């Protein structure tokens, strides 16, 4: 069976559920490739008429907002011990350095760290639970959460779908290539965040060394 024929047999409801669940779990604090899934599903919608982009975008927004809200409640109840537990379970994502980077972002931007974090792979996982741990007022969190979910999920769906329709003929012949490009985009964003985390860690180590260094003795005057 040709790949195009196989894609036509994929039930639309399964695509909607997959997008909503994966994005919801990622927003809740579980490291999953939500952005890759959303981009891939939107490219699929651009080449398959039975997948409605409006329903797809709505499911993505709902998953983002609901997942972040659940993550907030879990973080508010679990507190700092929750971050320690996540660090042991997912050391690559919830290491002390990553947590410190996220906390600095919240200290700098406040409630808008939730909004901005929706567009950054690392903060997208942290935003909900960390906002709860830091006891951000829920009304502030909710405003930034809803706005971030609509702009990120809805905007991504609209932009990728529009680009996909423009290149529809190309996508029909090379649909697998669109998925590869989406994967490379997601991996690239992860590498950038990893590089920023290492840079922040090196700066913290340098600052700690300078604080602990003993001052040189001052020669006594004649």
TrEMBL record:
Q: Where does the record place it?
A: Cell membrane
What is this entry's stated membrane topology? Multi-pass membrane protein
Q: Which residues form the VTT domain?
A: 32-161
Entry keyword set: Cell membrane, Membrane, Transmembrane, Transmembrane helix
InterPro entries associated with the record? DedA_domain (IPR051311), VTT_dom (IPR032816)
**Top-rank lineage group of the source organism:** Bacteria
**Transmembrane annotation, as ranges:** 15-46, 53-74, 109-134, 141-162, 174-193
Task: Name the family the entry cites.
Answer: Belongs to the DedA family.
Question: What protein name does the entry list?
Answer: DedA family protein
Q: Which organism is it from?
A: Streptomyces asiaticus subsp. ignotus
